[in-house]
Specification:
single chain, alpha+beta, SH3 type barrels, 2 domains
Length: 162
């Protein structure tokens, strides 16, 4: 991988190249690194596993000192791949002063989506409808495993992108 960012660079086993790719990426690509897992109820509703986190989403912390805490996303920092949750602050070691706490999107789970933008879940609704259609076609005698349903949905979404 060269010194500049290359969109055509596919992958490497070497961690230094992976870190370099993420560090040198432009902001429109870094935005995709802000992906966050959805709660199980939201997964079934929208037919997606994850989505880019936004200000106003309610999240649950899944890792670290604040594990299990709920809060609204107050600020999203795409440049540094981190987000701030309202109501969660940490104390300074000396003096006990309250400080803003930042979280990586991989360590939180979205519980309630901010649905102000109608285009945000456009792709997810279509996929969820496709899953329902496939499940309706399958009779109880011919139960299809979840993996095959997911493969069919994945093919349809790839076709839709092209």
């Amino acid at each position: 991988m060269k010194s500049e960012f290359s969109k055509s660079w596919s992958k490497s086993v070497q961690p230094r190249k992976q870190r370099k790719f993420r560090a040198n990426a432009p902001n429109h690509i870094k935005r995709t690194f802000m992906g966050c897992n959805l709660d199980k109820a939201l997964r079934t509703k929208y037919g997606r596993r994850n989505i880019v986190v936004r200000k106003g989403d309610e999240v649950k912390v899944m890792r670290g000192q604040f594990k299990g805490k709920l809060g609204k996303v107050g600020e999203v920092d795409i440049k540094n791949t981190r987000l701030q949750i309202e109501g969660i602050q940490r104390a300074k070691k000396m003096g006990g002063e309250k400080l803003i706490t930042w979280f990586h999107p991989s360590s939180v789970k979205i519980v309630v989506l901010n649905t102000d933008d109608s285009r945000r879940m456009k792709r997810g609704k279509k996929v969820a409808e496709d899953v329902k259609k496939i499940e309706e076609k399958v009779t109880p005698e011919k139960k299809v495993e979840e993996k095959t349903v997911k493969k069919i949905v994945k093919k349809k979404t790839e076709e839709g992108k092209k």
